[in-house]
Design a protein that fits this description.
Blueprint: H1 15-18, E1 47-51, H2 55-58, E2 66-69, E3 76-81, E4 84-87, E5 100-101, H3 107-115, E6 125-128, E7 139-145, E8 148-154, H4 165-182, H5 213-223, H6 228-231, E9 242-243, H7 247-252, E10 275-276, H8 288-291, H9 304-321, H10 326-332, H11 342-345, H12 376-385, H13 395-399, H14 402-417, H15 430-438, H16 453-460, H17 465-469, H18 481-491
Antiparallel strand pairs: 1-8, 2-3, 3-7, 4-5, 4-6, 7-8, 9-10
Helix pairs in contact: 4-5, 9-14, 9-18, 10-14
The structure holds a DNA duplex (13 and 13 nucleotides).
Protein name: Chorion-specific transcription factor GCMb
Keywords: Developmental protein, DNA-binding, Nucleus, Transcription, Transcription regulation
InterPro entries: GCM (IPR039791), GCM_dom_sf (IPR036115), GCM_large (IPR043020), GCM_small (IPR043021), Tscrpt_reg_GCM (IPR003902)
Length: about 500
Amino acid sequence: MPADTTQDADSLLSYGMKLTWDINDPQMPQEPAHFDHFREWPDGYVRFIYSSQEKKAQRHLSGWAMRNTNNHNGHILKKSCLGVVVCARACALQDGSHLQLRPAICDKARLKQQQKACPNCHSALELVPCRGHSGYPVTNFWRLDGNAIFFQAKGVHDHPRPESKSETEARRSAFKRQMASFYQPQKRSSREPEVGNPQDISGNLSSMPALEPTERLDMIADTSFSMTNQSCLSFPNSDVLGVTCDLPTFQGDVTLPFQKYSNPSIYLPRPPWSYELAGPVGTGPNPYPTLYKDPSSIADNTDWVHLNSLQYNVSSYSSYESSLDFTAKYHGWKPTHGKPGLEERVDYGQCQAVTTCPYYNPELPCRYLPRPPAGTQALQTVITTTVAYQAYQHPALKHSDSMQEVSSLASCTYASENLPVPIYPQALDPPDATMQAASPSKRAPVKLPGDCQVLRCALASPHEADPFRTDGDAWDVCLSGMGSVVGCLDRTGQPFTFESEEF
DNA sequence: CAGTGCGGGGGGC
DNA sequence: GCCCCCCGCACTG
């Protein structure tokens, strides 16, 4: 592993961010002395420098579903985010989480994917496009130069995390295994549990309607079912989590898709084969807890978007909400409240973790908000490539139940309570938030309700380009997802070890 | 079959 | 010219 510069006081500042460079520069920093750890979930306007020996960097991997985009530059590989595939009805899984599939990279495969039904409720699947970069999908750039691989990301993902590639692959492998076992019934005892056997990867679907074994298998296999448990963790710090496909473990471990630890902040609403916690440290402000839902508190949550947004946001800035009556605020929040949304506090600068919180508004999920003029093209693209995209209120919202919402939020709030961060008296102003989210380049002055330290982070780089040139900026440390938040917070005195990951 | 990278080409600004 | 996107192709696992 290349030298790591994230262990010292400047651990929050990636090596790449310490240097002044842009992916388009004629000359890149020569002979970098250090390299950054590979980040699976880069989010925000960040830059990293990986070793050319870094396998993941060599493959230009990303937790986000990034597809190749032709930038007509043979030296710089450009990729744009495809967003995340969710259930159009925002159905809730047994554990309260929601489906968040990884969009297929291949256009054809993606179309097929969207034509399939939600494995949980059989309703349509919907692709939530990413438009975190001025209305366009977040873009990632890769450039190999000498012994370094330069990475630069532009935009803040405005959607939950999809299932990571490794998870998807692991799950598919598991499904195949299941398929194989299912189609060998002759060899199995009639009394041997099948669908319900603990090893059933679909055990997570215990809430789904009873299906014939074959149907269920098909369903699962076809849709590559996954739970938001993991994806919801737009937890930046998931970068801190070594993503591993521990199939053996998965297969052997059946019980629950996630484990509950004594420490609520360590809830792992993830399939056992997905992430591998590097340690409690990495789970500090872990968003996972926000995802975890006590079955008993899970009402018929049909408000996926709400929960999701919550999860996502919580995972992104739950720290701000630690002592906030999140549930109440969230529930009571309406577009007309005229209060600044969290997204406002979150700029597109380098405080990426906070993201645009497009889902924050239960009434008007960002993705359903009018696209900015500059986004028309993107919209067209979405329409042509995204079968499910529709500029209307999320169906789930129409059926949302306040109580359910509260219930969902309650559990999330609980999670956030375990986060080591102060709050954030905030005023929400959906309209503004929307505008900003839609046109980050035309951000209006960020309102500073209360003393949000993190806001500085956002304000530090009012312009997208700035982050790249404001070398040394205390806030360009903001790493991905929660990491950034944490990073900012750290600067405010909150002790935190961001880099706990070991690859 | 899907993921990935490359490159031609169209269209908007 | 730049950016976005679509599309097809070839290669790979």
